[in-house]
Amino acid sequence: MTGMTKRIRIAVVGERASGKSYLLYDLIHAFGLLGYAPEQLPLSYPHSSFGTYFYDTFNSKTGGMRGTERYACRPDNHYAAWLSKGKVGRRLEVDFLNIPGEVFNMSEEVMGMFFTLRQFIEKRDKGVFYLSTWRNPAGKETKLIVYKELDLVKGYTSVEATSNYRFGNYIGWSHLRHELSMGQYQEVSRKPVGGRYMLSHLTELQTDSVLLTLEHCWDLLTLRQTAALEDYKARMVFFYFYPLVYCQQATDLVICDNLVHGASVGRLAEHVAHFMKEGNHRPHAYLAFRGADKLLVNFPGNKEAQLLPIISSEPSSRNKVYEWMMADLQKQILEGTIGNMARFPSGWEKHVKQSLGDGVGRAFWHLLNASMAEGVVPRLLAKINNQKSPYELLRESEKRLPPHVYFTASPIDAAFRIYQNDKDDVTRFYWEGDEQLKVFTLEVNSGREQHLCLGSYQLLTDILCQNGVSSEGLRQRGEHLLYMQSKM
After folding, report:
1. Could you give the CA distance from residue 26 to residue 48 in angstroms, rounded to a whole number?
2. 473: phi then psi, degrees, rounded to nearest 5
3. Residue 247: Cβ within 10 Å count
4. Which pairing describes strands 5-14 and 252-258: parallel, antiparallel, or unpaired?
5. pLDDT at 69 over 80
6. 286 DSSP 8-state letter
7. pTM for the whole thing?
């Protein structure tokens, strides 16, 4: 943090159809509900804007959201914003990365290969890697990592890479030359940098050039130790190098799960926990379940009518809605009562428990333990601030969910209309009533309806809270949210 600026970096991890795209879509809207507005990003900023995220993920033909496939990750796949509340309060510099769960589907041996590669890079002083800055006539810059003798203009023929190939693969020097020439970029500087600099600035660098330079300098990098380049490439260590490094820089990591489809994320949470332990980096950890809109089919009493008039003027009233939903849900998961959830798919309680883990040492409980900062000073600060470990929280009451677990309902608006999944397009949600069809993303983006952001509003409040940022979302919290948002 510099002055009144706070940087928050959010890694969102999950398998396909786990709700990553919709969660990020909701989180961006939740910032607005908390009073934050985006500033203009500088021309030299390496990441795409929040507005670009809507363009990249929104399917204008169907009104749905595109899913996240395996992709070659570069700085422009990052989405970022500088957010402020007018002239009051600190600016938030936020960026996030949408990470396929398969990034962590690796054996301990392969994970060890990643950390070995990191060590190889960190040990290299200036002289192996060179920072090459290119600028176009408009003043926009791109930064490459090259080796000393590389002449990208004279040494390579310009070859265009198709958009589909570029999306799923890292490209070569000839492709890079083509992209730079099409953008009218010219090299303006070149200077030596060390391996630590490259790693700490990786998300600002042109990724393809980094991997190509690592490949070219492999023998010098590894000092001819038993580390075969082809093994690193075949086992996807190179392909997933960027998102893995980002997870070691993130302030917060959210695992997404789907209550209705797919397997539990217990194994994924275990892999992420092991990754944290190996790398000694401790981002705050959260778990977000998708599909909680089904829990509101029989919303208790007439609470909608009570809250509808004040939700638009008092966004924190969403916490009351969430507390009512969770009071019923927690009984379902931990006590096995049927209640209002009889229409929920069979076996969903087992799915949730497998993702959470039945105790410390498995699944999300394990991840929470791994995310706790180690060392004498963090433990002393935790004791001073009366912060309890996940193990202590579990021992106090086994009839509670772990902290930092949220149930999100993306396809629901502030008028409590629950949008149904379109069977012909799983990315689209619609509401049909009064002989009128409404598509969720179209209604919300047009401003005709307001987001409820159920669960995601509370998750964002927690993320800000863990990073020392107070917000309106801390108002009107009940016992459940006070526990969920325990400082850790």
Report:
1. 17
2. -65, -10
3. 23
4. parallel
5. no
6. E
7. 0.90
